[in-house]
Structure formats: C-alpha cells, structure tokens
TrEMBL record, chain A:
PANTHER family: LINEARMYCIN RESISTANCE ATP-BINDING PROTEIN LNRL. It comes from the Bacteria. It comes from Paenibacillus agaridevorans. This is Antibiotic ABC transporter ATP-binding protein. The keyword Metal-binding does not apply. Pfam families: ABC_tran. GO terms for molecular function: ATP binding; ATP hydrolysis activity. Keywords: ATP-binding, Nucleotide-binding. Residues 2-233 form the ABC transporter domain. InterPro entries: AAA+_ATPase, ABC_transporter-like_ATP-bd, ABC_transporter-like_CS, P-loop_NTPase.
From TrEMBL, chain B:
Residues 19-416 form the ABC-2 type transporter transmembrane domain. The keyword Chloroplast does not apply. This is ABC-2 type transporter transmembrane domain-containing protein. It holds the Pfam family ABC2_membrane_3. InterPro entries: ABC-2_transporter_component (IPR051449), ABC2_TM (IPR013525). The keyword Cell membrane applies. Keywords: Cell membrane, Membrane, Transmembrane, Transmembrane helix. Signal peptide: none annotated. One of its GO terms (cellular component) is plasma membrane. The chain crosses the membrane at residues 20-41, 227-245, 279-300, 306-332, 344-365, 397-419. It is found in: Cell membrane. It is a multi-pass membrane protein.
Length: 310, 425
C-alpha cells in the first residue's frame, strides 16, 4: 500500500533521514521504533508530503506521492507528535473545523464526529475547551481529529508521549480497534518498546536516520538468537558477586538493576550453575532467577550499544 | 474560506482578555487624552494666524446694474422686477464678503491686505502670504443670479495658494461655512501651485444645507476628541492586524497549520480567512470606538446622514486595508523566525503609528515626516477623515476612498503572494 524508497532528508548539511526504505501492506500494523532524533517525524512529514525529500521517493499503491500530493490526502490520516489543536476552542469545535476542511459537512460530519469521540472515549466532554483538558485527553482528541475522514492509512507519531496510564491504555485500544476491526493500515511510531510489541505485527528500527533492522517480533528476536537475558534477584547487594559475574566467560554484558543484576549471556552454556556457584562463594542468597527471551529493547541495545530511552 | 473565517473569528472571540484590551484600550486613551488635552485642536483658541491677500477684480456697481438689466424681458411683472432689484442692492456679494473679512472673528485668524493681483502673487510666491482671495470679474452678476434667481454660478470665488496647508484648509472652511450660513450656493474654487493652477474642486455648499443665518458657525477646526478618536482608532486597528499574525504564529508553532495542510486545504484559503476575520474585528473595534465616543464625548453633533455615510465608507475601506496588513504580517510570520517577525511587525506599527499621527498630532511633526506619513495606511486614513470632517467635499471623499481601497486590495494581494508555497513551510 505504502512504500518509501531510499528516502532521505538533509537540513542544512545535517542528515535527518538517510535512505530509509519501508513498506506497509494493506491492513497491517507496523511499528517504527527509534530513539528521539532518529528521524521518525521527519520521515512522516515526507510521507505526508509536508516536507520535500532531499532524495528518494514515497509511493502510494505504486504511484509517486511527490508528483501528486493530493492523492495521499484522502487516504492518509496523520496524528502529529504535537497536540495540533486550537486550545481556545472546544473539542467539538476543533473536530468540526478539521472535519470541514476535509470537506465533510452536515449530518455526515456530525455522525463522524460523534463516532471518533466515542472511539477515544471523550463524547461526554466534547463541549469543553481543549485548554482545560489533561495531557492524555488532548492526545486523544489529537487522534480523533485525524480519523474524521475515515483514512485507509493512519500514521501516528508518538501518540502516547507523556500521558497518564488510563489515557495510554485508551489510545492503545483505539489503535487496536482501528487496525483489527476496521482494517485500517497503521504506522505506529514510538520509542516505547512495549507498545510496539503489543500493537504491531512488524517493526522497523530506526537510528540516526537509517533503518537498522526490520521484521516481525520473532524475526528480530532471532538477531539475538545466540543470546539470552538472565535476571538475577538477590536478597542484599553484593558488589563482589556482581564483579565476578561480569568476569565470567559466557557473560557478554551485565547491568545492575535495583535489586539484582541483568545478564546477557551466550546461549547453551551451563550459566545457571555458574551463577549459583558464584553466589554460594559470595554468600549471596538468590531470591529469584529467570531467563527472558529477548525484547525489542534488547534488540536495539544489541544493534546500537545504546538504550532506547536516553 | 468561510470555514477558516469562522475558526479565526471564534478564536478571537474566545480570547476575551485580548478582545477587551483591543476594544477598551483605544477608548480609555481617547477619553484620557480628550480630557487631558482638550484644547490641542480647540475651537476656542485657534493657534492659527495667516496673512491673506484680497483682490477685487469685479466692479460691484456695474455688476448690479447688469443684473438689473437682465431682469427685464423675461416675463416678470413690474413688481417682481422691482423687488429683485431692491434685493440685489441689499445682497451685494462683494460687500457681503468684505463684511466677513472685516469681522472681528475673521480678524482673529487672518490679516487681510487688499491689493492688486500682481502684488498679491508676488507676496504669495515669497511665502509671506498663505493665500489670495480673488473676486473675479463678473462675480457680482453671477452671484446675484445664483442667490436670487437660482441660476448656476459661472464665476466662483477663487482662493489661490502656493501649497496646501492647515491654514488654507481653515480659510476654505470659513468661507464655505459663511456662504452656507447665507443659505445659498456659492461656488469657491481653490487653486494651488501644486495642482498647476487648475481648480481642485469647488465647495458645493448645496450638499450640506444649513438653514438660517443665525447658524453662523465658528471655524470648523477639528476638535481634540475628534482627532484622538480618529488617530487611536486607526492606530489600534493596526495592532489588531498584528494580533491576527500573532495568532497565525501560534497556529504554526502548535502545528495546527500542518494539520490544515494535511487536509489538502490551500494556503490561500487560510490567508483569506485571516483577512476576513481581521476585517470584521477591526470593523467591530472601530464602530465601537466611534459610537461610544460619539455618545460620550458628543463627537459629531448634528451631523447629517451623508456625513455618517462618508465616515462609514472610510471606516470600511480602512478596515479592508487592515485586512491587507494582516495578510502581509501573517506571511511575514511564516517566512521569518518568530522573534524577528514579532520585532519587525512592532517596528512597522510603531513607525506607521508615529508618522501617521497616531502618537502625536501630525502637525507637530516636521514637514518631511508628514510627507512620508501621508503614505502610511493610518496617516492616509486620518487625512481622509479630517478632510471629510472639516470640509465635507464629496468628490474628495470619493478620491480618498478609492485611493485607500486600491492600497487595501493591493496589500491583500501582496500578502497572499508573499505567503510561502506548499512544501516550503
Ligand atoms: N526543520 C528542521 N531543521 C533542522 N533540523 C531538523 C529539522 N527537523 C528535524 N531536524 C533534525 O532531524 C533529526 C531528526 O528529527 P526527528 O525526525 O524529529 O526525530 P524523531 O521524530 O525520531 O525524534 C534531529 O536531529 C532533528 O534535530
Ligand atoms: Mg518525533
């Protein structure tokens, strides 16, 4: 349905997006994952033809969007990273305005407005001014405004940044509803791993303007196929114990967590007995020990040597 | 465009604080200044004094005789002819004018020297005199024909000046009022060197009828409260245009504008909405200022409907001009960084405001500044208002209205043309 071909953007000599190619099949929910500054928003602006690419192309159903930007307007709904609403107008007035500039009017507009308000769970509060809403409620209206014209493809740019858990769950539910029940194609941008893991069947990982990995959750996990993550929880902190763990041959990385240590270890080693043996020598009592299959967070850490949220 | 207009209007409306400031501030300033400086332009103490030459080229006696002669043979009865002849002796136009020029009231503003044409022109060119009032040959007969028989006057009174000036305005007003007070139509031609000694239009006193000789007025110098109402109103309209651009800045900063672009709406619609909402807001602001001041300060007592229509026309075209200024400002905010755009707008409004007489009366400014000030939108409007209020010359009103309208429409077009094209925002 949507495809970017070696898409790139340079701002005054600084490359924000560097030859990124992604594609979305109809009905898919795809995640675009990357830390702040990775180039996600720039990429979305180019797809929405708000920004002219320095090089590369964006194609919708095989046709170049650059040559015919009007084509993508009807199909596409963009939820911007920022709250792009009139603070001094009510939720209702905002939706009415944005609906009308999409050419909706009369009964149809009213029906659509009530539908999206219902979807984001703010129907009762539609008469209130955006200014008086909480961050999460604003985000929900921000999403609703992008759905009025029934877009076939919805792009969401970090729709859950800095909001309360209730609103966040609501938003995740909305995305699921859109994708699974209405068959809308979704490109979901985030730097929260859990969300992308929950919502998306496929993921692109972006860093420094480049797509550094892509695939289904399992495929990405296989990047780490030679490794496991091991969480060790101890009764009391013991620097000596941790230090010795780090020196073990099969331990590739070790990181102290609040009440224990997280180890990235090579697969198929008798690591468990080594850990237990080391604990014995240091008189450390292990409360809990479990092996975790790799998360996207781990994939990112592996690929870039950095954590996502820094 | 209607969609955008409604949205803009609504955002103005919601911003009560800003709206109140925009409407109350000019009122407060007008009241304060009118009470603090009531005699700045006061009627009672006109700070005007000029020297004028008085040239009589007409022989009144033979003019009256010629008039009497022309009465015969037109089917009038003996009695009618006798009455008209007697009236002609009483209403000798040259004597009437001398009476005015000799009056104490007139001597308060001007010193009159009677001389011949050549000498008078010499003094005028030296810059010693403000103007020459000439009674051309044939004036008596023509004037009597006008007064007594309602004939068209073929020989108007002539005022000659080197350049337009406030003094000249006053002179013209006084003479115009005088004839008006006599309740008959008497044409006056004003010629200035600037216009190449071509008459610039007569005072058509028939358009502003004032009945009765007892209504002899003072000089129609603009009052302070009138001046402040006009100058504050035009100044604050410019601030309103700036507010529009500031709101556009917010739309850009908060990415609402991006969302508008996403819908496929054309930037032109967006800018046109800005123009329209600015027009409405400035109209609202101006109408409130004029009406409140009129009723509180008794701004324009006893003015006619046509006077008010003229004022309305000027308010309307000026507000269209402010819509133009707002579109230019909006485009500037989209082309520059926020700080630079705000700074630039502030400078423009302050400079226009100063040169156009928004902060101090234009008469205080040096000539070169006044010259530039006449080309600022507010200065242009202020001049048009004062001309209309002082002189009430309809063709002049048309001229200034059309001129303002041309500038206003041009500003809107420039503003829209300056708006960045899609993909460059
Ligand atoms: N208009 C711009 N001018 C200059 N640099 C920009 C502009 N927009 C984005 N950038 C830069 O491009 C990079 C990518 O930004 P962005 O796409 O916003 O990342 P993300 O959305 O993944 O956080 C950042 O380094 C940012 O500073
Ligand atoms: Mg971003």
């Amino acid at each position: 349905m949507l495809e970017t071909v070696e898409l790139g953007k340079t701002f005054k000599g600084k490359t924000a997006v560097d030859g990124a190619s992604i594609y979305l099949e109809e009905g898919e929910a795809v995640g675009l994952l990357g830390p702040n500054g990775a180039g996600k928003s720039t990429m979305i602006s180019m797809i929405a033809s708000l920004l002219k690419p320095t090089f590369g192309d964006v194609r919708l159903n095989g046709q170049s969007v650059l040559k015919n930007p009007a084509m993508i307007r009807r199909t596409l709904g963009v939820v911007p990273q920022e709250i792009a609403l009139y603070a001094e107008l009510s939720a209702y007035e905002n939706l009415k305005f944005f609906g009308r500039i999409y050419g909706l009017k009369g009964k149809l507009l009213e029906t659509k407005m009530q539908e999206v308000l219902e979807m984001v769970g703010l129907r009762e509060r539609q008469k209130e001014l955006i200014r008086t809403f909480s961050g999460g409620m604003k985000r929900r209206i921000n999403i609703a405004a992008a759905l009025l014209h029934d877009p076939k493809l919805v792009i969401m740019d970090e729709p859950t940044v800095g909001i309360d858990p209730q609103s966040r769950n609501h938003i995740l539910d909305t995305v699921r509803l859109l994708n699974r029940e209405k068959g809308t194609t979704v490109l979901y941008t985030s730097h929260y791993m859990e969300e992308v893991e929950q919502l998306c069947s496929r993921v692109y990982i972006m860093d420094h303007g480049q797509i550094i990995a892509s695939g289904t959750h399992n495929e990405l996990g296989r990047i780490l196929s030679g490794e496991d993550t091991l969480y060790v929880k101890m009764s009391a902190p013991s620097p000596g114990f941790v230090h010795e763990l780090k020196s073990l041959e099969s331990v590739r990385q070790a990181e102290e967590t609040g009440d224990g240590v997280k180890l990235i270890v090579a697969k198929q080693t008798n690591i468990l007995s080594e850990v237990v043996g080391t604990a014995d020598r240091h008189k450390v009592q292990i409360l809990n020990l479990h092996v975790h299959s790799p998360s996207l967070e781990d994939v990112f850490l592996h690929l870039t040597g950095r954590k996502l949220r820094d | 465009m209607g969609i955008f207009f409604r949205k803009d209007f609504l955002t103005y409306w919601r911003d009560r604080k800003e709206l109140l400031i925009a409407i109350l501030m000019p009122l407060v300033l007008i009241f304060v200044m009118s009470f603090a400086l009531p005699n700045w332009f006061g009627n009672e103490t006109p700070s005007i004094h000029m020297k004028i030459g008085f040239v009589v080229e007409d022989d009144a006696a033979s003019g009256i005789a010629a008039f009497k002669e022309s009465l015969g043979g037109s089917g009038r009865t003996e009695g009618e002819i006798a009455a008209l002849a007697a009236a002609a002796d009483d209403l000798n136009p040259v004597l009437l004018l001398r009476g005015l020029l000799d009056s104490e009231e007139f001597r308060g503003i001007a010193e009159v020297v009677e001389t011949d044409a050549a000498a008078a022109l010499g003094q005028l060119e030296n810059g010693k005199w403000t103007a020459i009032v000439t009674i051309p040959a044939g004036y008596t007969q023509s004037g009597l024909g006008g007064m007594l028989l309602g004939q068209e006057e073929t020989v108007p009174l002539r005022i000659t000046a080197e350049e337009t000036s406030m003094e000249l305005d006053v002179l013209r007003d006084v003479l115009g009022d005088y004839y008006r007070s006599l309740n008959f139509s008497m044409a006056i031609d004003t010629v200035t060197k600037a216009s190449g000694f071509v008459p610039t239009g007569g005072v058509d006193t028939a358009l502003a009828p004032i009945g009765g000789i007892e209504q002899v007025e003072g000089f129609r110098v603009i009052t302070s409260s009138q001046y402040f109402t006009l100058s504050m109103s035009v100044l604050f309209s410019m601030f309103m245009a700036m507010t529009t651009a500031t709101k556009a800045m917010t739309e850009k900063r908060e990415h609402v504008f991006q969302r508008i672009l996403l819908s496929g709406a054309r930037p032109v619609q967006y800018v046109a909405g800005k123009a329209m909402s600015t027009f409405c807001m400035t109209m609202l602001q101006a109408v409130i200022a004029f009406l409140v001041c009129h009723f509180v300060l008794n701004l324009f007592p006893g003015e006619s409907l046509s006077f008010w229509l003229g004022v309305s026309a000027l308010v309307t075209v000026y507000c269209i001009g402010m819509a133009g200024l707002a579109t230019i400002f909006t485009s500037v905010t989209f082309r520059l960084k926020e700080d630079s755009a705000s700074g630039l707008m502030m400078i423009v409004v302050m400079v226009f405001g100063t040169l156009g007489g928004g902060f101090v009366p234009v008469y205080v400014l040096p000539d070169w500044m006044r010259g530039i000030g006449e080309w600022t939108p507010n200065g242009m409007a202020l001049a048009a208002y004062t001309d209309w209020i002082q002189q009430g010359i309809v063709p002049d009103l048309y001229k200034s209205t059309v001129l303002l309208l041309i500038f206003s429409v041009a500003a809107i077009i420039v503003g829209i043309a300056m708006f960045p094209r899609k993909g460059r925002i």
